[in-house]
Amino acid sequence: xxxxxxxxxxxxxxxxxxxxxxxxxxxxxxxxxxxxxxxxxxxxxxxxxxxxxxxxxxxxxxxxxxxxxxxxxxxxxxxxxxxxxxxxxxxxxxxxxxxxxxxxxxxxxxxxxxxxxxxxxxxxxxxxxxxxxxxxxxxxxxxxxxxxxxxxxxxxxxxxxxxxxxxxxxxxxxxxxxxxxxxxxxxxxxxxxxxxxxxxxxxxxxxxxxxxxxxxxxxxxxxxxxxxxxxxxxxxxxxxxxxxxxxxxxxxxxxxxxxxxxxxxxxxxxxxxxxxxxxxxxxxxxxxxxxxxxxxxxxxxxxxxxxxxxxxxxxxxxxxxxxxxxxxxxxxxxxxxxxxxxxxxxxxxxxxxxxxxxxxxxxxxxxxxxxxxxxxxxxxxxxxxxxxxxxxxxxxxxxxxxxxxxxxxxxxxxxxxxxxxxxxxxxxxxxxxxxxxxxxxxxxxxxxxxxxxxxxxxxxxxxxxxxxxxxxxxxxxxxxxxxxxxxxxxxxxxxxxxxxxxxxxxxxxxxxxxxxxxxxxxxxxxxxxxxxxxxxxxxxxxxxxxxxxxxxxxxxxxxxxxxxxxxxxxxxxxxxxxxxxxxxxxxxxxxxxxxxxxxxxxxxxxxxxxxxxxxxxxxxxxxxxxxxxxxxxxxxxxxxxxxxxxxxxxxxxxxxxxxxxxxxxxxxxxxxxxxxxxxxxxxxxxxxxxxxxxxxxxxxxxxxxxxxxxxxxxxxxxxxxxxxxx
Length: 726
What we know:
Blueprint: H1 2-18, H2 21-31, E1 111-113, E2 119-121, E3 129-130, E4 133-134, H3 142-157, H4 161-178, H5 184-199, H6 203-216, H7 221-235, H8 240-256, H9 258-300, H10 309-320, H11 322-325, H12 330-341, H13 347-374, H14 378-388, H15 393-403, H16 410-422, H17 426-439, H18 444-457, H19 460-473, H20 478-491, H21 494-507, H22 509-513, H23 523-526, H24 534-539, H25 542-558, H26 565-581, H27 583-586, E5 590-591, E6 598-599, H28 614-621, H29 628-656, H30 659-663, H31 667-685, H32 699-724
Antiparallel strand pairs: 1-2, 3-4, 5-6
């Protein structure tokens, strides 16, 4: 019996090496435990070699003349380079096995090596049929997704645990089968369901719903936040560690997903601009409040002496209110503040006023740039939905209307093609991909995805050429290398397959390992598709978004002057320059350092200009001029003014932080404190969001972080003002 066994092994080895029909018949006879007929009479049947390596044959009723040695692997064959993937079985000389699919290699026509190192087959390309079985084409739609979701919900009502698990598995299988990374709509519904279950005391169910939401949409931050809240509700302090891990995963998802990360960065940048607008407006209003008394005093000198100061003050207030009365916009009103107070400001205050006006004038352009960089247009939202979510019928209909027009954008064609491919509509996918490559040649992601469609349809030669073209256009595209390796694997060119997939592993290990499975022949899992590049999604319609934001901000800040910001700013700059140059001729009054009255050389001729008004000069310098009762009354007024000034500065510091420094004569520091305080407060309250984030996220965490940053800045600014104004 042993001799028969060795004879069968020797015959099998020789037959496989020669790849002859007779050898295949012999192997078949051994596997089926039949007594093989002599080679001269045994008919050859074209049956492929079984996929698994040959097992030890059963005893047969033949004797063998000699004991053959166990065949060993040919030199140069490497084992599978992936983790968790079994190494290929050893093979006899002249025979190799597939390193990624563990399939036996049927005989092929000899391969020729071309000069560039590629491999071409001399015969017709075999059809794309795996020895494990044919590739499983995708089946399913959004209607199936809704049906499974509703069936799970009904099972929850009926408290049918087995049905709940079955429908949950159906949802996950549908996600994997159709190849969509995130099912946002269903995950959102599960998050709301989990919150209701927590409120109703159904904590285990809430934890199950939140966990399913995480599996269906791992890039959805709200799913992770919901899971963390459910863990805390279910286990209390015992689940604190798991909840912290979920919260950390939520924060990572916020930063990893471009739609959330860019919205976060855009909102931070927009809130910085809004904070600068607030700080600038407050600074200019405070400058006007401090200097209004002196500007109205000089304005009174423009009229005859018979005119009452009250009348001229009312007229001056009306002139200042002209921009508000005629709705000329916020910029015009603040510009009037600067013009009215310019002559009475110190050098640092003038610089602060100029910076504030420049920030206000540039705000429309700055916010437009932020919106263009971080916001998604309606077209971009549709592209993102079609590329990432199964609930995309409405978005796909809008994109199809654009694709039917003249010169559709590249992302529209590729997005629709990828959707058709995932849903199994391969003819539509081929047409759309070819349209995209004809209009926009050299796009590696479209070439890779079109090659995958041809691969599934059985055109391995076409798929191979497209993968190689994609690699030539983008040598860092891991998916193209992996899919090319799958082509070589099907052609049983195993050295080339191993090289290509090893290169893919080096480029993106996580992506490749997630697709390495010897048993998963689903079309959307067997090959790696390249999603729409985020740059294409973000840039689609971004100019329209930027223009819309810029127009809205211009309308709010400039009113009817919108669109003429540059001429308006130029005129304002010339007026301020003229006031600066003509200051000596105008001879504006100043503030008395003791009592705060105007120091006016027109009213008190002969003043030395040492910062004291006429009354203070007579009382504190020319003591012999004023009598003691007048001196006592003046000193009381001085003390009352100094106390009022100190109280006002401290109150401004308490109410508005940096406003106290502005009033105390530290304009730069005051402006910076105002800006930082406004920035942190806007972010803590969420009022500075230019962009509506898709998911609100952890509101409490955001508020706590910015509040903790705001408190020390506010406390230090108040402490500094109180220390200086003792």
